[in-house]
């Protein structure tokens, strides 16, 4: 089926699916579909320069993304020839620039998004690393917020679709349809905002590549095919490298020599006299420890024996006191009358 026989919405859907899937094999077809869609949008005056984003119907908002997808898919080209790649990158940059101009003309972005987009556009100039890092963090946070909003709208659309299947009353169906249109509008506005940030990033990369390509095509053919000359390192560096290499070679030779001429058995680490002294010292320490243990046991036994004798003596004394109360020997001595 030719492009002119396909409805405009179906052409856009084909190209959008190819863009989201990043299908390199279908990129050429997608670019052709996009070009046909651009021609038909222009011929039918779907988007008017006298309008703002609030005046554009929800069903037509997505057509603002046509030049963005053209530029993005072209910038992913794998063309190797310098002349042809220069033409492709110039065309891609032209489409992305037109998309950003349309976004600003129709006032699609919020103030925060406009400020971030202006920072990205100005970042093509030389800036310091700290500023570039701060801009990158700001851009990342904004992209993350937009993606979160898109995910929420997608979940809302899924819930609405389920609700429509459960509804049968006409009034409820009409209310749900109005809610769905608001969700669709927010979805495309967020997609355009996200595409604006990506387009500014991609345009910055394209401009840097264009500088390299223009320099490459300006060279004669023989110089372009010739590899870049390799500059010899300074003599001081070569001398240092040679010294380091010599030291490494010497160390490796010593390791190999030690490995080759080592004995087949493990050599002793001490002499016989040293080992005898160690064993005698260990035996002396063991004897001293045994003597101390024997003395401790003898002292414990003596203490136990003395304690037992004292216990017996105390027990005998207690028995005698029980048998001989105090004053018992004088109980019959009475004065005479």
Descriptive account of the structure:
With about 325 residues, the protein is mostly helical. It has a domain of about 180 residues: TAP42-like family (Serine Threonine Protein Phosphatase 5, Tetratricopeptide repeat, Alpha Horseshoe). About 75% of the residues lie in helices and about 0% in strands. Helix 3 runs antiparallel to helix 4, helix 5 crosses helix 6 and helix 6 runs antiparallel to helix 7. The chain is elongated. About 15% of the residues are buried. The mean pLDDT is about 80.
Write the layout of secondary structure elements.
Layout: H1 8-21, H2 27-43, H3 66-75, H4 82-105, H5 111-122, H6 129-166, H7 170-218, H8 221-225, H9 235-260, H10 272-323
Write a concise synopsis of the structure shown.
The protein has 337 residues and is mainly α.
Specify the structural class. Answer: mainly alpha
N→C terminal distance? 163 Å
Number of helices: 10
Instruction: Give the % helix.
Output: over 70%
Number of strands: 0
Shape: elongated
Strand content: under 5%
- How is the biggest beta sheet arranged? none
Superfamily at the CATH H level of the domain at 47-225? TAP42-like family
Provide key terms for this protein.
mainly alpha, 337 residues, Serine Threonine Protein Phosphatase 5, Tetratricopeptide repeat
